[in-house]
Amino acid sequence: MKNHKFSPESLMMSYGYKPELSQGAIKCPIFNTSTFVFKTAQEGKAFFEVAYGLREKAPSEEMGLIYSRINNPNLEILENRLCLWDKADDCAVFESGMSAITTVLLEFLKPGDLLVYSNPTYGGTDHFINHYLPSIGVTVLGVHPNQSKDEIVELIENSGKASNLKMIYLETPANPTNDLLDIEMYSEIAKHFSTAQNKVITAVDNTFMGPIWQHPLRFGADLVLYSATKYIGGHSDLIAGAVLGSNELMIRVKTLRTFLGNMASSNTAWLLMRSLETLKIRMDKQSQNAEEVAHFLKSHDKVESVNFLGLLVESSHQYDIYKRQCTAPGAMITFNIKGGEKQAFQLLNHLKLVKLAVSLGGTESLAQHPITMTHAGVDPESRKRMNITDKMVRLSIGVEDAKDIIWDLNQAFEKVELSNMEKLLKH
Ligand SMILES: *Cc1c(COP(=O)(O)O)cnc(C)c1O
Q: Fewest 10 Å CB contacts: which of 70, 179, 418, 423?
């Protein structure tokens, strides 16, 4: 009985918070303060010695509170709770997913280095990798789902920069296609190119699956990143990000965060702590709803095809990765409507309950048209390669009653007029 280990979802209401330090309040108050009063000058000196790495922390010593760009109780408690899901040593929360991603890329990549990254990635990440990093002398090399280990190793060797490889950056499942990348395979590639002086880091953007349904650190990844705006926040009312990993790497991430000053605010951290209390039940319900919606779409005669992890063909390589890497199919669905932009827009314009908006992971269901919205800025050639066409609609499924989501989609499909050609094909 003594060694019972609580599940993360049981600890989200209390872990890391001491009511006796806050007048017995059951919930952690919002620490809206820029600075913290030291009891004595000696204490201030001791806190700074640890914060600036001038000496090692004593075994039982906790890092003292100094200034909210360096540390704040709301951030620290939130970070400790996030560590539980991914079983990470440490976590850093940021004021956006993009600031989490760019801080990691800037810390670990220097002029002359090589970055290997998977396609497609989130639009903002794609822009930073393809436009900003080359401007500071980082070489970037894109890879695609379904390329084999040998093919990728050869691509890296042929780049002439194999000895400068510093990071492999993955986003899986890929947005908006739901294509999966094999995290274990990529971390083996990172090991293959690592030397005693140069450890190649594997970083995974786990926004679509995490932190509930996929745990990249268990498959050899070194860092896991989130847009906490999405499932972690989960209510479409804040922007935030997070990075998790080993103490050794997180010290570097947190140090750069201190100097860029892009940490989350105490208000944002407080809202995220509230969100974490319901994270598991929200995500489980969203995924169950998505399974029902995906099956409805699959049997609809105005739908050409559905991309959903719960509908992967069992003999496929993608299914094999899914079974090893994910514990649920998630709650993101894309489908191709019969016809094109006209039909997709008719559907989107007639939705009543499901909202027409980008972003994802919130409690409400959202629909959007990737080629003209989230992926409008992606190079047309790579869009073609990823099968992002004008027929594609992306859904983020929320926590509503699945019956109502299906009712809404069904009534909107009734407003969709197929072209004569599509009607002929139907018969
Ligand atoms: C939204 C998103 C981001 C960017 O996060 P922000 O919180 O909007 O800065 C990064 N990666 C993925 C997969 C996303 O969906």
A: 423
- In short, whether 106's Cβ falls inside 6 Å of ligand 1 is no
Q: Is 227 in the pocket of ligand 1 (CB under 6 A)?
A: yes
Q: Which of 67, 68, 49 is nearest to 58 (CA)?
A: 49
Give the DSSP letter string of 33-74. Answer: -SB---SSHHHHHHHHHHHTTSSPPPTTPPPPP-BTTT--HH
Residue 125 CA: which ligand 1 atom is closest?
10
State how far the Cα of 384 lies from the Cα of 382, in Å rounded to an integer. 5
Point out the domain boundary residue: 276, 306, 333. 276
Q: In CATH, what number is assigned to the domain containing residue 116?
A: 3.40.640.10
272 and 283 part of one domain: no
Query: How does pLDDT run across 358-390, given as a tens digit for each residue?
Result: 999 999 999 999 999 999 988 898 888 888 999
Whether the model pTM is above 0.70: yes
Q: Residue 221 phi/psi, 5° resolution?
A: -70, 150
265 with 342, same domain: the answer is no
**Residue 360 sits in which domain range?**
279-426
